[in-house]
Design brief:
Layout (H helix, E strand, L loop, with lengths): L1 H30 L14 H13 L8 H13 L1 H23 L3 H36 L6
Helix pairs in contact: 1-4, 3-5, 4-5
């Protein structure tokens, strides 16, 4: 029973993931940005990049000389919003397989069950990290953060 349900959820999840990634690629193309483009922050020294990201995330003043870089980063980050949704779909797909792995008595299934849980926890942490940047980017583009 769980195998059929898990398989159906996984198939639907794969279809949803493909749709999300195609829509994200189209959004990038419409915006004139390469799909796998480097972040706008890559050219900055790491100390400056850390200070800038801290200011963006906390809604603090973004220095005037870095305002252009911050806006380019925010624009790219908002275009990446499909990453958040695809990670949620991936988590659902992983959870759907847990009952099947738990019901099996083979040693390899037990290892796969615990590995699945560890990867799921990692995906939740990654989702929180990406979602935090999504909110900060949206706030910066709305102009809610304090100007320099």
């Amino acid at each position: 029973m769980w195998g059929a349900i898990g398989g159906g959820v996984d198939l639907a999840g794969v279809v949803i993931l493909v749709v999300i990634w195609i829509r994200m690629a189209n959004a990038y193309q419409r915006a004139g940005v390469r799909f796998l483009a480097m972040s706008a922050l890559v050219g900055l020294p790491s100390a400056v990049r850390k200070r800038l990201m801290s200011a963006i995330r906390h809604g603090d003043v973004v220095p005037a000389e870095l305002q252009d870089v911050a806006l380019r980063w925010a624009h790219q980050e908002v275009l990446r919003r499909g990453v958040c949704w695809s990670s949620i779909v991936g988590m659902v797909m992983m959870v759907s397989g847990l009952p099947t792995l738990f019901a099996s008595t083979e040693r390899l299934s037990a290892v796969a069950f615990w590995l699945d849980l560890v990867v799921l926890c990692g995906m939740v942490l990654a989702f929180v990290y990406v979602w935090r940047d999504q909110l900060a980017a949206a706030r910066l583009l709305r102009g809610s953060s304090r100007p320099a």
